[in-house]
Amino acid sequence: MKKNIPNFITCLNLLCGCLAIYFIFQQELVTAAYLVVIAAVLDFMDGMVARVLHVYSEIGKQLDSLADMVSFGFVPGAVMLQLFSRSLESNGFTEPVASMLPFLGFLITIFSALRLAKFNIDTRQTTSFIGVPTPACTMLIISFPLIMANDSFGLTEVILNPYFLIGITLLFSYLLVAELPLFALKFKTFAWKGNEIRFIFLGLAIIFFLALNFAAIPITIALYILLSLIKPSVS
Length: 235
Description:
By secondary structure, this protein is an all-alpha fold. The chain has helices at 5-24, 29-53, 58-88, 97-100, 106-121, 134-149, 156-159, 162-177, 196-212, 216-230, and strands at 128-130, 181-183.
């Protein structure tokens, strides 16, 4: 019975992704974003529960990737499609660019699939990552509708600039599959020694969120990449 608990949590992650897709195409991006946050928590929990219960199965590994492909692969691509569509409404793009450009968002979906496929066969990624993890990329993208819904810094105009969206799409499509060593938030112990970079990251992330609300998410993702570049050998 206990061996199925992590898989059940993974299925809840998948359900959140499916519900998020429904709300995205209902133009309710904020609701979708909250569902993705829940999916990310569940994605973290299934692995943690599997380690605590000392249960592992190949089907669990494959199920996790399939769920992630929906919640952190298709969902961010669909969000980008909607953001592109909104950005083009007031930027004077002519046909056929105006009708085709939103589909550029699905580059995120394609490169997320490549990222997840590589992760499953890459033995280097047991305690750290090579390339930006799909949940991190997705958290960045779903932060945009949350920022726009609570925009006290005037960032909506920036987010809905089509050139900004093109840049984010191309940059993170690359970062998903780049040979870039990144630390994982996996604690073997909670001692300071050996976990310095993780504690620094978490501390700064909390400070940023308290000060900037949802606008802290893009800064936190950038910080994650920067700290990894400073100390890429962390395990």
